[in-house]
Design a protein that fits this description.
Number of strands: 13
Number of helices: 3
Structural class: alpha+beta
Oligomer: single chain
Strand order of the largest sheet: 12-11-10-9-13
Radius of gyration: 24 Å
Order of helices and strands: EHEEEEHEEEHEEEEE
Helix content: 10-25%
Amino acid sequence: MAKQISDGKRQWYAIHTYSGYEDNVAKNLKQRIESLGYEDKIFSVIVPKEKKIKIKGGRREVVEEKIYPGYVLVEMMVTDQSWYVVRNTPNVTGFIGAGVVPTPLSKEEIDILFKRMGVEEPKFKLDVAAGNSVKIVDGPFKDFDGRVSEIDEERGKIKVFISMFGRETPVELDFLQVRKI
């Protein structure tokens, strides 16, 4: 009988993939697990992603970004056979660990990761307060400097006074459109 690589406990492992192939690897690995009948050894395959706020074309958009580009997480019991199934999936370059022995991720790492992934609506943190000076970095008032008058965290908006035509004019902007000076 083949010698077991590990103690056969169910744990999370990180596998390294070619960058940009994470979703492809996850899909292929899930198909291999099913077709080879390894559901009792390899339980979950995920590409860790989180939601982020970006501004595209002047509009706020929520996009999903990979937390660890080039990595896929696999919950499995490592045996010679299950290791072989994962390791020989196309575009997988190897397990994270010392030599050929995969190193499991700690429970703390997994808990933090799942917490990050579970956030439904991302919050954008802005480190400015009323009275602070800001530079507008996007939108029709780009490159203007201004002074913060109000912050509406709930809506993700900020009211800034900018100097225009010799007088202070209030403009409402998205948090992502300003940067603290």
